[in-house]
Write a structure and sequence with these properties.
The chain has seven helices and 26 strands. It has helices at about 5-20, 70-80, 135-145, 200-210, 245-250, 260-275, 325-330; strands at about 1-5, 30-40, 40-45, 50-60, 60-65, 65-70, 85-90, 95-100, 105-110, 130-135, 160-165, 170-175, 180-185, 195-200, 215-220, 225-230, 230-235, 255-260, 280-285, 290-300, 305-310, 310-315, 320-325, 340-345, 350-355, 360-365. It is elongated, with a radius of gyration of 25 Å. With about 375 residues, the protein is of the alpha+beta class. It has a nine-stranded antiparallel β-sheet. Helix content is about 20%, strand content about 45%.
Length: about 375
């Protein structure tokens, strides 16, 4: 089996597929790429025991067809060193010997029998299929991934929840300290369904998708989902479990409203957080009609900090505590010049959202408060 390929394009596709290969695998064969040539197209497959990804690219002067497994780290290393050159592969499928030639030399190494590589499982007969534009998926994942939980005790919280309705798509994530809802009424999936996409795969999908990609075809059943777009196919096992009813978590009667410049508040939080207790990261927010007074202290080191930020607040004066780390994450992931914060009392969560929402999109982030001891 022989073929010619651009080193630069090959490196791009190899790096993309490598993102779903674990550094340590229970099955050693999964340390390899599965390389297949068929009808002048090169298929590069990689994965772990839960995710499989395939990238394609066209090859030239192909002779013969077939498959071989090649150590992923070895192939990435050698292609990286000759990425800007045309590459010629000469693969003996009988002996598994690989001869990779470039302008001034060649590499010679061994592959592994492709028959050892696990085959991707097909979807169940009851699988559903729908198509979405790439842009809302990218925007939704960018707005929710930061709040995905890393706590394996609650598996359902370790992914991004897709609430799919005929006339809208809502992506949700939570680590129990903060909850994010990204609702998009501009897309029409045309069916009712849901799934919990693992955080690792959601990160890979976000990194590969661009807003310029036209559409993403999604096929899913109760256990797995496949995303097809551009030159990639990504299949993942969905997170098992029932996602909490997020709509019930959002309070519907936060009567007090605060509007503040997002960047000013974010920078002030970062400064005051430098002197907060490392155990709690607590910042005290004392709010009145025109000003937020923030304060932090670390009794162990006898340090403290205070700062004031102008605001427009409609409600009863209030002192409420928030974790500075979580608030920094929330404010960093809200787009727009001003942020709106809805409050009720110091014991109830605050709702954060852009003051000006994009047409057809509703982004709301909930953060749980902390007890402030006066």
């Amino acid at each position: 089996m022989k073929f010619n390929v651009s080193g630069k394009i090959l490196q791009t596709q190899l790096q993309a597929v490598s993102k779903v290969i674990n550094s340590k695998n229970a099955l050693s064969i999964l340390d390899n790429f599965l390389i297949t040539v068929k009808e002048d197209v090169l298929y590069i497959t990689g994965g772990d025991q839960e995710n499989v990804m395939t990238a394609t690219l066209e090859v030239a002067d192909a002779e013969g067809e077939g498959s071989i497994a090649i150590p992923a780290r070895r192939l990435l290393e050698v292609v990286k060193e000759v990425q800007n050159q045309p590459l010629h592969f000469d693969i003996n499928l009988s002996t598994l010997e690989i001869d990779l030639r470039f302008n001034n030399g060649h590499f010679n190494f061994m592959g592994i029998d492709a028959a050892e590589y696990p085959r991707k499982k097909e979807h169940d007969a009851d699988a559903v299929s729908f198509t979405l534009p790439a842009e809302p998926i990218v925007n939704g994942l960018e707005g929710t991934l930061f709040a995905v939980s890393l706590d394996q005790i609650r598996p359902a919280m370790t992914g991004v929840y897709w609430d799919i309705e005929p006339e809208r798509l809502t992506l949700v994530s939570s680590d129990t300290h903060k909850l994010v809802k990204f609702e998009n009424n501009n897309v029409k999936p045309g069916l009712t369904d849901n799934m919990i996409l693992p955080g690792k795969v959601a990160n890979v999908l976000k990194g590969l998708l661009t807003k310029e990609d036209e559409t993403v075809e999604i096929v899913k059943d109760a256990k797995s989902a496949t995303f097809r777009f551009a030159t990639y196919t990504l299949t993942t096992r969905l997170v098992k479990g029932v996602y909490p009813n997020y709509r019930r978590v959002f309070p519907k009667d936060n009567p007090f409203s605060l509007v503040v410049n997002r960047e000013s508040l974010l920078n002030a939080v970062r400064r005051v957080a430098l002197f907060a207790s490392k155990a709690s990261n607590l910042i005290r927010f004392s709010i009145d009609a025109t000003e937020i007074q923030m304060g932090s202290q670390d009794l162990d080191y006898a340090t403290s900090a205070e700062e004031r930020v102008d605001c427009d607040y409609k409600g009863n004066p209030m002192t409420i505590g928030f974790n500075s780390t979580y608030m920094t994450e929330v404010l960093s992931n809200i787009k727009g010049e001003d942020v709106k914060i809805e409050l009720a009392d110091p014991a109830r969560p605050g709702l954060f959202s852009p003051l000006e929402q994009e047409p057809g999109i509703e982004v709301v982030m909930l953060q749980m408060p902390m007890q402030v001891i006066e």
